[in-house]
Amino acid sequence: MISLHANAYGDDFNAARGSECYVANNASNTSKNFAKILNDNVVAAMKKIDSGAKDRGVKTNNFTVIYKSSMPCCLMEYAFYSNKEDLKILKKAEINAPCVIM
User: For a Cys staple, 74 with which of 16, 35, 56, 58, CB 3.0–4.6 Å?
Assistant: First the structure.
């Protein structure tokens, strides 16, 4: 299971930028391995649109949607709506959706 989200930070445009993927601290190795693959592929797709796209990596956090899951899962935060450069990527990816599909 993949929980997909576009990130945001604060109430105005700021420097927070990049994509990151989360697994829970109780995640299986399957979830951890998939999170790495998913993150790498999303970042690669973003970098095709903007070479300055940032990779914030795979992180651990016990978000309920992944912590309470009984199946392999991760939560993907793909870019920040609150960053002007990331917002350009998101707008372009929306038009060219196949470029962000693995």
Answer: 35
